[in-house]
Fold this sequence. Notes:
Layout: H1 8-29, H2 43-73
Amino acid sequence: MPEIIRDPFHRALASLLKERLDEIKENLAHGAAARIAEDVATVGEKYALIMGRIESIEYVLQLCHDIETNQETLGPRPAPVKVVER
């Protein structure tokens, strides 16, 4: 993952996804997959679900990286044009 993502949308998306990923990992480390008496899901099922979320977020982060890389290889981006009404 590049340290600098130039596109503002992808940078904001990556930042939010990384925050969510850290939160999910922290919760998992503190027992998010633990069995509760009234819960029908097993620890393994909960763990698999949480790991699926982690993998999904990491996949989207990789897509952000791929898009940013593709944009950089296409050459310089056009300068923003300021439109003034008359």
